Amino acid sequence: MNGSLVPANTKKSLLVFGxxxxxxxxxxxxSGIGITVILLLIFGDxxxxxxxxxxxxxxxxxxLVLPIPNYHNTLCVIESILGFYNGRRKxxxxxxxxxxxxxxx
Length: 105
Description:
The chain is an all-alpha fold. About 45% of the residues lie in helices and about 0% in strands. The chain has four helices and no strands. The protein has helices spanning about 25-40, 50-55, 55-65, 75-85. Helix 1 runs antiparallel to helix 3. The chain starts with about 25 loop residues before the first helix and ends in a 19-residue tail after the last helix. About 5% of the residues are buried.
């Protein structure tokens, strides 16, 4: 058999820290952490509930880049779901058969 076995982690070297895509993941995580730091500096001496609410941007960013099985992260799952529902529903057969069942008009 002249096949080759490709390891499952071949694209991991293209990721930052082996986990994050450079632009979308790090941008989302960095902006969430940055907004949280700015809010914590602004509301530093506020009540506990205000401080907990100011941590929400960081938590949203962490949830979006959280790795999950069979996908890269939660953001990729959301992109796949949106692509499925907003994508093309009717597919035109372009097969390799010798006699096509349908001809183009």
